[in-house]
Amino acid sequence: MASKPGPLTQWPWHNLGNYKYALVAPSAAYSTYRFVTASSAAERDLLGFMVFPMLLLRLLYGQLWITVSRHQTARSKHKIVNKSLDFEQIDRERNWDDQIILTALVFYLVNATMPQAQVAPWWSTKGMVVTAVLHAGPVEFLYYWLHRALHHHWLYARYHSHHHASIVTEPITSVIHPFAEEVVYFVLLAIPILSTVATGTTSVLTANGYLVYIDFMNYLGHCNFELVPKCLFHVFPPLKYLLYTPSFHSLHHTQFRTNYSLFMPVYDYIYGTTDKSSDELYERTLQGRDEAAWRPDVVHLTHLTAPESVFHNRLGFAAVASNPLGAAASGHLLRAASAVASPLLSLFASTFRSEANRLDKLNIETWVIPRFTSHYTSKSDGYKVSRLIEKAVSDAEASGARVLTLGLLNQGYDLNRNGELYVVRKPSLKTKIVDGTSLAVAAVLNMIPQGTKDVLLLGNANKISLVLTLSLCKREIQVRMVNKELYECLKQQLQPEMQEHLVLSCSYSSKVWLVGDGVTDEEQMKAQKGSHFVPYSQFPPNKARNDCVYHCTPALLVPESFENLHVCENWLPRRVMSAWRAAGIVHALEKWDEHECGGRVTGVQKAWSAALARGFRPYDHHHHPGITHDGRGGL
């Protein structure tokens, strides 16, 4: 929103959400019907018929630019502006498709009111020449002066400041404007199209090709990395005045009073508004930063979960990834798209980098194994997944990472013995493997309501259930179990003096349930009304009861200084991080020189105290007395 919003700031369909696409439906259906029922090829309205396919193509094209751009900026080396992207900007730019809908509506209107458009051929050389000349002349010239006018304090405060709120630009930043400002741009950019229609030189390819050109140049100029090769300017030096670069336009967003041109910098050179550092910034960003400046210190290795998580990661749909998994309003559409994309993604043979963050001079990256939870639980895919993880460990060491955390099922005991397998195979491994058990247990303890005397432990026997049980016994909390196998497994690993706090029970009467993987809805139905379900597993339990309290999976609020966080980690809310992921960051900040994998444990209190000292704060979406003002748990 502009600092002082002026008239017609909001788009007319602002409150319709995704139903705004219904505005196009009547015209799309009518134009398709006319095209199909035309008695001859000469009567078919090609331009009108192509409006809807072009709408879909431009949506896909825009999303591809988002994905490619975010993949490049996650690599960090060729960034132009090395600043943080935040949730506020993601929310502000979530309506990037509005201008595509407006274009379709305008095209349908022109097609209905100008009979010349209804007989447009596929191609017209004259129309292409007219379009190119009118764009390079009147459009670029008028846009330059319009843009300078928009930087007058009155117009800037009411309209253009909305666009300039994004210092770190993404391709879709290019089309984020108040409605009134976008309408003015449309009138300006319509000059070539309307002129060719009026002169009878229009064609389907010319009109739609001009739209693709505008999209390409808009998205290109707002990338936060340099990608225009230097050889183009060597081969054809005048191109410098006809083609802007991402670094050239980035200076407009950081300096505000320079580089006003639309796509052709010639008018900035003519009127003396070219930023003096344009050439130097282009050279520097094209060369890239030194490897030491962008190599990761911490790598968090995660994987895809459900099929819809394909679009929930940072390289997917920005508006979806900025909210917890499953919170998207268009859930059915997302699942349908995931059904198509998931098999393709599974063909990837190695991890991909999806996110890059920074905290206290630490470079932190998230790498994704392109496999779903179903692959990890499948016996036939287990070996392939293990090889992918092992390769990621080797890649992390090669990149200079000091710590690698194993997220979600990447630390499964059956898969790699909680990460110990990779240390055994490579004893000289410099990258420390962290499974995050200590901090995860500490987060669970913090969620247990103050004054709790006994808990019911459900789930499987694993490392975290053992460390959690030991911590509870040390605090003289009675740990009840209904599963004899779990009871016997944990009991034999506890010291005799601790075993007295372990109880095999047939009762489900405890008010606090610590739930791991495999807890069924039937078991939950046995809980008393008002019971607390506290997960200690990587995945949240299914919520089978409305009269009980469900806590979140072990997680912490990140420090305020944590940079470039604009996606949600799976089902967790904004600026909340799983304890397993946070553990690796704390490990690196504290410069601990030991692995935490296999049977090794950092120490629950040690990890918790270090996390709080580094700015992490306890998180639980259910606020209970166990969380005090200073962030310490009730236990």
TrEMBL record:
Enzyme class: lyase
Keyword Transcription included in the entry's annotation: no
Domain Fatty acid hydroxylase: 136-273
Keyword annotations: Endoplasmic reticulum, Lyase, Membrane, NADP, Transmembrane, Transmembrane helix
Any one GO cellular component localisation term in the record: endoplasmic reticulum membrane
Complex formation: Homodimer.
Family membership noted in the UniProt record: Belongs to the sterol desaturase family.
Stated name of the protein: aldehyde oxygenase (deformylating)
Gene source species: Oryza meridionalis
